């Protein structure tokens, strides 16, 4: 993932990626209008090196960039484990599951951490009841 909305970051991005000046991408408005063409150019350029190289080069140039990790990679990341962002729970049908906690702290707590996802259909009656459906309408 990278962000180059501001003009100085766009200039840094094009310098790092070797993208020559192109009137279609002269400002943020034009880049949005020509998004499909821009995606094609970026995809072609970014295919020329691995993610770690691009993150290193782009961040060195002042362009915010970071890899988008798979869940497996994220769960094993020292940045994640070092901040205590991995927790385990036991799901009723799947068993033990490792999860990512919210990185946000509210009064020292991580909201939502530890709750299990319901099994399919577990909340249907409650939701339909809240919508005003009676027993007959729920069947």
Q: Report strand %.
A: 5-15%
Radius of gyration: 23 Å
Q: How far apart lie the N and C ends?
A: 46 Å
Shape: elongated
Overall mean pLDDT stands at 90
E-strand count: 2
Widest beta sheet: strand line-up:
1-2
- Along the chain, the helix and strand elements come as HHHHHHEEHH
Report the biggest beta sheet as strand number plus sense, adding barrel if it closes. 2 strands, antiparallel
Counting structural domains, the number is 2
- Poorly predicted runs of 5 or more residues: none
Question: What class, by secondary structure content?
Answer: mainly alpha
Percent helix: 40-55%
The total count of helices amounts to 8
Give an account of the 3D structure.
The protein is mainly α. It folds into 2 domains: 54 residues, no CATH class; 68 residues, no CATH class. The chain contains 8 helices and 2 strands. Strands 1-2 form a two-stranded antiparallel sheet. β1 and β2 form a beta hairpin. The model has no long low-confidence stretch (mean pLDDT 90).
Short structural summary:
The chain has 139 residues and is mainly alpha-helical.
Give the helices and strands, then pairings.
Layout: H1 7-17, H2 28-33, H3 35-46, H4 51-60, H5 71-76, H6 78-82, E1 86-91, E2 95-100, H7 124-130, H8 135-138
Antiparallel strand pairs: 1-2
